[in-house]
């Protein structure tokens, strides 16, 4: 998939939605398990930051126009090697 097929910030936007959802789920599960509210909120903020960083990182990787060099391309034609004559 080429980078031009992604609208700007598509992956980051959905990464943010996922981060908010997981953070809210984390608070809810922490409260149901008997954790204190401040611990649950702290854990939710930590999860939010991690998921947001993953979403923004994925956005950056997918939208970077990386062009591999010819040496890394296995299908590129190699220059002809000089012939060796045994005498």
Entry keywords:
87 residues, mainly alpha, 56% helix, 0% strand
Question: What this model shows, in words?
Answer:
This protein is mainly alpha-helical. It has a domain at 27-64. Helix content is 56%, strand content 0%. It has helices at 10-32, 37-62. The longest helix is centred in the middle third of the chain and has 26 residues, at 37-62.
Give a short summary of the structure.
This protein is mainly alpha-helical. It is 56% helix and 0% strand.
Task: Explain the layout of strands and helices.
Blueprint: H1 10-32, H2 37-62
* Major β-sheet annotation: none
Average pLDDT, all residues:
79
- Total helices: the number is 2
Task: Give the fraction of residues assigned to helices.
Answer: 55-70%
Shape: elongated
Low-confidence spans: none
Number of E strands: 0
Order of helices and strands: HH
Tell me the distance between the termini: 54 Å
Oligomeric form? single chain
């Amino acid at each position: 998939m080429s980078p031009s097929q992604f609208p700007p910030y598509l992956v980051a936007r959905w990464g943010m939605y996922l981060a908010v959802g997981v953070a809210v789920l984390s608070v809810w599960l922490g409260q149901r398990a008997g954790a204190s509210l401040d611990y649950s909120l702290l854990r939710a903020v930590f999860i939010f930051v991690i998921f947001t960083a993953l979403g923004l990182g994925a956005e950056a990787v997918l939208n970077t126009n990386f062009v591999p060099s010819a040496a890394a391309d296995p299908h590129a034609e190699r220059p002809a090697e000089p012939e060796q004559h045994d005498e």
